[in-house]
Amino acid sequence: MNVPLLDLHPQTAALRDEILRAVTEVIDSTTYILGPKVTGLEEEIAAYSGAGFGIGVSSGTDALLMALMALEIGPGDRVLTTPYSFFATVGAILRVGALPVFADIEAETFNIDPGKMAEILADDAKNGRTIKAIIPVHLFGQCADMGKIMALAQEYAIPVIEDAAQAIGSEYPMQEKDGSTVWRKAGSMGLVGCYSFFPSKNLGCLGDGGMVVTSDSNFADTLRCYRNHGAKPKYYHSKIGGNFRLDPLQAAVLSVKLPHLEQWHKQRQENSRIYRELFAQAGLTDNPVILPKAVHAASPDAAKHNHHIYNQFVIRAPRREELRKHLQEHGVGCEVYYPVCLHKQDCMKRFGSNALSLPVAEQLAQDSLALPIFPELGREQLTRVVEVIAELYRS
Ligand SMILES: *Cc1c(COP(=O)(O)O)cnc(C)c1O
Questions:
Q1: Which of 22, 25, 372, 381 has the most crowded Cβ, counting Cβ within 10 A?
Q2: CB of 142 shorter than 6 A to ligand 1
Q3: Structural domain span for residue 288
Q4: Do 296 and 150 fall into the same domain?
Q5: What angle do CA 327, 329, 334 make, to 5 degrees?
Q6: pTM (2 decimals)?
Q7: How confident is the model over 331-343, as pLDDT tens digits?
Q8: Same-domain check for residues 61 and 114
Q9: Residue 302 confidence class, pLDDT cut points 50, 70, 90
C-alpha cells in the first residue's frame, strides 16, 4: 500500500461540481480583477479569523511583503523572526532591504522562543538599536506563544506581523487582563496576519493566493492601497505598492472550500490522535521517535478548539536520512521541513548570518520529518506508515 504525503484528488473530486459552477460564474461575469468574489471571500475570511478586515492578495509571500511595505520597513531596519520557517518569511524581510534578526526556537513546538526574543530585545535597547517589526511564524499549524510575544511587542511598542500561512483556523488561549482566557485565531492577535492559500495548506486554492487580515481599519485601507500600486485614487500614487491582487477565480474556489475547513481540521486532528495511539502501540514514542507536541491540548476546554490544525505532522527521529529513504522505498511519502535553517542559507552569507549559532533550530533541521496527515487518510494508511517506521528501528 502506498501512502502519499499529500493527495488532493479526494478533496477536489468531492467539490468538483460546486467549484466548476463558481468558476463559471466568474468567467461569465467578465469581472476578472478583484470584484464581488474577492470582496466576498475577504469578508468570509475576516469573520472566520476574528479579525476585522481581510485583503485578498496574490500569495502568502506577497502578504508578508506587502505588510512590511505598508509598515514602511526598509533598508537598515531590523526585523525579529524565527530561523526555522519556509524561506518566504525571511525572503520578505530581505526584499524590503531590512535585516532579519533571528531568535532561536523551542524544541517542543518548532516555534520562536519568547525567552530568546526577550534577550535580543533587551540587548538591542541597551545598544541603542531598535527592532521595527516582529514576525512570529505559527509553524506546522500551531500558534507561537503569542501571549508572551504580544507582551514583548507591547513593552517595546513593536508591530507584530503573524506569518499564519500554515495556521489559518489554529487557536491560541490568550489571557485577557481580567484573567479570563479567550481563544484567538492565528492571524488575529498581531497588527496583521498573513495567510497562504497555496494548495498544500489546510485551505488551498487551485494555484497561488493569500490574504492579510487586520482589525485596524486605517491599516486595512493602507494595505488595500499597497495591493494596487499604492494608488488612491486610481492613477494617483502617494505610495509605491505593487500588483498583489488575489484572482477572483481563486477567491471563488476558496469560498466553496471555506465551509469545509473546520471539518478538514478535525480530520487532521483525528489522524494525529490515531498516529499517537499507533506509535504508542508500536513502542516508538519518546524513544526513538518524538511526536509533535500540541502544547495547549491540556488547557481547559481545549477540546473545543483548534490548538493545532496539523498542516504538517512533524516527528523527530534519529537516523532521519535513513528513515526518509526507508519510507520512500516502501511507498510512504514524507518530507523534510526544513533541511537548512534560514540563517544558514547561502544567500544569508553576506549578512554574516551563517556564523550565528542557533542550536535548537539547527538540531531540528537535522532530525525532523513530516509524515502524511491530510484529512482523507484512513486508519489503514496511518497504520502502514507506523509499521514501516517500526521496521527500521527494529532492525
Ligand atoms: C507557504 C508559506 C509561505 C508562503 O506562502 P505562498 O502562498 O506559498 O507564497 C510563507 N510562510 C510560511 C510559513 C509558509 O508555510
A1: 372
A2: no
A3: 261-394
A4: no
A5: 35
A6: 0.98
A7: 999 999 999 999 9
A8: yes
A9: confident
